[in-house]
Amino acid sequence: MAGTGVFAEILDRDVYKYYADGEWKNSSSAKTVAIINPTSRKTQYRVQACTQEEVNKVMDSAKTAQKLWTKTPLWKRAELLHKAAAILKEHKAPIAECLVKEIAKPVKDAVTEVVRSGDLVSYTAEEGVRILGEGKFLISDSFPGNERTKYCLTSKIPLGVILAIPPFNYPVNLAVSKIAPALIAGNSLVLKPPTQGAVSALHMVHCFHLAGFPKGLISCVTGKGSEIGDFLTMHPGVNCISFTGGDTGIAISKKAGMIPLQMELGGKDACIVLEDADINLVAANIIKGGFSYSGQRCTAVKVVLVMESIADALVEKVNAEIAKLKVGPPEDDCDITPVVSETSANFIEGLVKDAKEKGATFCQEYNRDGNLIWPLLLDNVRPDMRIAWEEPFGPVLPVIRINTIEEGIHHCNASNFGLQGCVFTKDINKAILISDAMETGTVQINSAPARGPDHFPFQGLKDSGIGSQGVANSIKMMTKIKSTVINLPTPSYTMGNGGHSKL
Ligand code: NAP
Whose CB among 24, 38, 439, 478 lies 3.0–4.6 Å from 338's, allowing a Cys bridge? Predict the structure, then answer.
């Protein structure tokens, strides 16, 4: 159970502690932040509201710990990560329980998130050993005007202190996708978990603690992003920010100093459906892509752009599948569970009302109870409706009927977002041409958008992000190239020195 057994030390009465200097601590603020259970809408957990002074201390110990960690052999860093991954998987049940209670993730998906996170940590350890175990060797005479007098050796060095800020929807997975690459590359890491999801993240951090990482190397400071966020992101001790979330990331990018940024932000992933598509396959992917975790996924299908000639058939099929979705609490492993907060539910409702006023066709009746919103397909959506462009982050999916492929591509590219997109057709040539024309970081052919597998590159264009994630890209992003150039007094040619006449 959460907060018991090996996790007992992270809890003080009913408040979870924060993690600094290898210890679990209460904040001197004596203030706490309540985490509301999205299903019961009552306080489920409490976490510490850390102070700026505590953040300063964490940054200092992160800097000191990093200097020692960078001297720890690569194989040993990998060994510790493998150990943390095993402990994480061993304790999947209590961590999944927190995910169910604080973000209303269905039980099965919650367990999957923890197991997937363990796999991600192990994979990163292995990939890191290879990527960081290799450097480059360059010779000067390949560039015009140079003789063979310079040998350049390059290797990857850590950046220092990495600040990781994940969002509520994958508070464990999107935290470890930042923690593991940072650590294998020799950095230290400060985690600011999302408030909804903080307790799951604290349990995950304890698994790293149990694995025996040096004190100060990993820290976890809790508190509302709106209160300590700016202090953290503008802290002079931070050498890199890896952020996943919404528009907050745009504001952070404008304020952050001259440090590398990895920003994975929102999306409005379009699903373009051509006349020759396999309707059953499309419908299955729209259900999985649009309604899994109640649509609260960055890569959820967020707008369907279907050719008019097959639109009726597709809408009918999708409606039949929607009718089969189980709606209810996450504890019962329902398909559609309450969205994360009342604010979020109100926002979704605003988009639905706007669509109603502007004449969208409601395929189901709009139904809401507290934070629980029943799945809804909106047909005949037009570009003047907010839902055509905005990310609902809920189980409401708009369908826009198109008459040409160009119309679909145009809608996709007119969006501020450019995370992923997908196209369904049996014609691979058309699929490639459409993929090339879509201004998104990834295009899936004949499948719904998805972030995994976690070693695939994952990136957003435009307002969807900066940089690229995926295991290898994150490791590289959290390092810098260091060169050492050996300058020879005379040109030197392997096996061609003519008997070393000049030596
Ligand atoms: P969010 O509101 O932007 O919050 C993300 C994180 O930022 C949370 O940890 C939040 O902490 C923190 N935060 C808030 N204000 C801050 C500030 N001023 N400075 C620093 N940090 C601050 O996003 P969300 O609602 O958790 O997640 C949903 C969004 O994430 C959606 O837009 C979704 O598309 C996007 N997302 C993107 C990806 C991707 O890889 N592209 C993946 C998943 C989700 P608090 O919780 O304490 O406010």
Answer: 38
The one catalytic residue among 298, 334, 363, 412 = 298
CB atoms within 10 A of CB 489: 8
Q: Which residues contact 275 (CB under 8 A, 6 or more apart)?
A: 307, 309, 310
Cβ within 8 Å of residue 71, ≥6 positions away:
none
Tens of pLDDT, residues 232-283? 999 999 999 999 999 999 999 999 999 999 999 999 999 999 999 999 999 9
Q: Which of 418, 463, 469, 411 is nearest to 439 (CA)?
A: 418
**The pair of three-digit structure tokens given for residue 372, joined into one six-digit string:** 């629980």
Residue 230 Cβ contacting ligand 1 at under 6 Å: yes
Determine which residue's CA is closest to atom 22 belonging to ligand 1. 225
Describe the strand order of the beta sheet including 479-487 as a list of residue ranges. 136-139, 150-158, 479-487
Q: pLDDT at position 495, please?
A: 78
Number of CB atoms found within 10 A of residue 384's CB: 10
Question: What does the pLDDT read at residue 452?
Answer: 86
Contact present, 263 and 466 (Cβ < 8 Å): yes
- In angstroms, rounded to a whole number, what is the distance separating the alpha carbons of residues 249 and 8? 34
> What's the pTM?
0.97
What percentage of the chain exceeds 90 in pLDDT? 98
